[in-house]
C-alpha cells in the first residue's frame, strides 16, 4: 500500500472492532467532524487482484459464521471497518450523528484516462448514487468537470443540479433506509423478484420506490431492446419520463440518464443550491405522476439534520395525496407525524407530468 508494509486488522472479530473504535474515539476527541477510511476494500498492491489473497484466514466470530477464508468475508470487510468507526465516532461525540466515508465510486475512475464521453456519462449517473466523488491518482489526468471541456462541464453542472433538486426526496429515502434496511439505490429485481427479465438489468436502477434511473452506459448512444421503464411493468399505469431538473436542456442532454416516475407517486423537490445548509426548504415542489385512476401519494421526511432528537419525535413526516376529478387536481397534506416544525414561510408548487389538468388546488 501507499506507506509500504501494512497489517490489516481482522474486523470480523468483535474484539478487533472494539479496539479500532477506541482508536477512532481518541482521534475524534480532537473535535473532528468525521473520518475517511481508505484502502479498505482491502487494497493490496503486490497481488494479482490488487486485494487480499482469497486464501487468507479470518478468525471471525460465530455470529458472522466463524473462521473462514477471505473469499467469504471480502465483501463485508470494509463495512465492518465502517461499523467500528461509526461506534468510535459515537463514543467520542454522542450528541452528533457519525459521519464516516469509505471507498470508492470515483467518477471517471481513479486511475487511467477517461474520455470526455465516458466522464460525462459517468457523472450523469453517478450524481444520483447515494455517494460518489471525482478524484484521480497521481499521474492521471485531473477529474474536475471543466478539465474535459465546456460540453462536459455543462452536463456535469446539470447532473449535480438534478441531485440538488432531488435532495428532499433523497433525504426521505435515507430515512426510510435507516428504519427498514432497504437501500436507497435498488436493483429493479428487488422490487419485482419474480420477473426473470429484470435479474440481469445492469443499466437501470431504482432510486427509492418512485424514481427509475435509466443510465445508458453503452459506448453507443442507443440501446437495443425495450427500455427498463417499459419492461418494468406496473398495474397502476406506465412509468412516466420526468424532467426533475426543470430546464429543457437537461431533458435533451444525451449524457444524462433518463428519469421516470412510478405511476401514483409524488416526489418532493427542492431548489438548486450550492450546499444543503444554504437556505431553508421554504418552497417544496410537488412532482406528481398520477396512476390510471388519477391518484398519487408521496412522503417528505425532515429533521434537524444532526443529533438524535428524531428518536424522541423531533422530526416531520408529511404525507401528500393527490386526486384528479373532472379536470381538477386536488393536492392535500393527508397526515403528518412528529413535532418538528417546517419553515413558517413554506409554500408548495405543484407540477404534474403526463396528464392534462385544468386547475390545481394545492396544499
Can you walk me through this structure?
It contains seven helices and 16 strands. The chain has a five-stranded antiparallel sheet. Strands 12-13-14-16 form a four-stranded mixed sheet. Helix content is 26%, strand content 21%. The longest helix has 31 residues, at 150-180. With 363 residues, the protein is of the alpha+beta class. A hairpin with a 3-residue loop joins β6 (204-207) and β7 (211-214). α1 runs parallel beside α2. It folds into two domains: 14-102, no CATH class; 155-361, Immunoglobulin-like (Sandwich), CATH 2.60.40. The mean pLDDT is 91. The N and C termini lie far apart (57 Å). InterPro entries: DUF5110, GH, Glyco_hydro_31_AS, Glyco_hydro_31_C, Glyco_hydro_31_TIM, Glyco_hydro_b. Residues 181-267 form the Glycosyl hydrolase family 31 C-terminal domain. This is DUF5110 domain-containing protein.
